[in-house]
Amino acid sequence: MDDALRKFEERHRAVTKRHRQLARGYVTKLGRNGVIEHRPRRQTPKLSLPMVLMLGSGFLAFKSFLFVSLGAEAYGVRVDTLANGTVVERVGGWLMQADPATQWISANLVPLLG
Q: What pTM does this model have?
C-alpha cells in the first residue's frame, strides 16, 4: 500500500506542477500525431524596481560595513589597488570607491556597532 500511495503522490505532484506552469501562460501547438498540446510559455526573469532597489541598498550596506571595519585609510588603499589592476578589477575599484552615501551610512553605523 505504501508503494501505491507514493506513486500516487508523485503523479499528483507532477500534475500540480504542470498546472502551475500552465497557469502562468501557455502556447498551444499541434503535435506530429495530430494531438493538440499545451506547453508552458518560457518565462524570463524580469528585473523589477523593488528588486533593483534591494540589490542597490544591499550593495551600499556591504560597502559601508567594509568601510567601517577596515577604516577609511585601509579601505582607500584597497580600492586604489583595485583601480590599478585588470579591467575587471578597475570596474570593481570604481564600484567600491567611497561615495557620499557610503560615508554617510558608515558614519551612522559606527555608533550602532560600537
A: 0.59
